[in-house]
Amino acid sequence: MGQPRLNLSKVHCLLADRDQFTRGLIAQMLRGFGMGAIQVAASGAQIRDLIVKDRPDVCFLEGVLPDNEASDIIGWIRKQPPPMRFIPIIVMSGYTQLRTISAARDSGANLVVRKPVSPQMLFDRLSWVAGTQRPFIETDNFLGPDRRFHDIPPPDGRFKRETDVAMEKQE
Amino acid sequence: MKRLIHFPKTTLSELVDDFGGMNRDDAIRGAQRELESMCTQADQAIDAGIAALQRISAAPDGDGGHSPAQLHEILVHGDQIVTLAGMFGHWALDGAARYLCDLTEGLRQEGRSDTASISVHVRAMRLLAPGSPPLPDEQQKLVLAELAKILSHRGYSRASDLADGAGVAA
């Protein structure tokens, strides 16, 4: 089987990180992948504005921003009318933000990754998010992509809740 | 309980399948080239981050140590250094910065301060930073082992262990 091939030239992404230099680094990586348009944001307020105005095709959000946690922003995105609510969201957690990742995952992120991110890791995760059709679940207390990976797990099989593992063992 | 299941086709998945694009190796090579072009700037950002930590470490403004606001600032700078050191392969600095973050988070949660321990971590980071005289690997490991003892003495947890427990990709 050949390598996965992605055409990102027409993809418009929103990249949010509180640190300007880190934003620049990740944006450069995405440009290296051939990403067509990259908009950057440094706060939750900017993210909300840009999502409504420009409708990005994918979002990369830092786990904690100066005015919001990613989980708050994801919760807001998932409550927007379709198709905005279905935007794929990848959360990038800084080392000190790893304590808040469960909240990001449970708020409806498609994937949570740890910083530092390498080009390999970023490409594989983006490729997985773009290429994996996951049902979108809407319940009273959860709005987001199905967190149970029955068929195609993420590249390293992670991003599971402990209960998912337990469910698979029972099946 | 309400339960709806949608099967949305996202614009991302439609666009990436268009004719053309890059295969994995070319895309990664392209991204690495872009990163390498920023290596010097990254070293400068690391240097500035450590300088900021040194300033905070040397001037505690709280009651008997660093204030909660200063501990927060240490975490912000430490986090940025972990990201940059990890991206550019400074493994020992990455390790020292993680120990600083774990120590600071532990102190913050307990509402305590430990000026001496913070200062030791920041000095170790300066020692291990790009631009400082290079240390042999064995000595770098020794520095990290000593920092680990401080965390262990305090009994604070490591953020990476919590992430492993939650199943987040490294």
Descriptors for this entry?
heterodimer; A: alpha/beta; two-stranded antiparallel ribbon; 6 helices; globular; disordered C terminus; B: 170 residues; mainly alpha; 8 helices
User: What spatial form of chain B do the alpha-carbon principal axes imply?
Assistant: globular
| Anisotropy-based shape of chain A | globular
Report the portion of residues of chain B in β strands: under 5%
- Give the topology string of chain B: H per helix, E per strand: EHEHHHHHHH
Q: How many strands of chain A?
A: 8
Secondary structure elements and pairings:
The complex is a heterodimer of chains A (171) and B (170).
Chain A: E1 5-6, E2 12-16, H1 20-32, E3 37-41, H2 44-54, E4 58-62, H3 70-78, E5 89-93, H4 101-106, E6 111-114, H5 119-131, E7 136-139, E8 143-145, H6 162-170
Parallel strand pairs in A: 2-3, 2-4, 4-5, 5-6
Antiparallel strand pairs in A: 7-8
Chain B: E1 3-6, H1 11-16, E2 22-23, H2 24-36, H3 39-58, H4 68-87, H5 91-110, H6 115-128, H7 137-154, H8 159-166
Could you provide a short overview of the structure?
By secondary structure, chain A is α/β, with parallel strands linked by helices. Chain A is 36% helix and 19% strand.
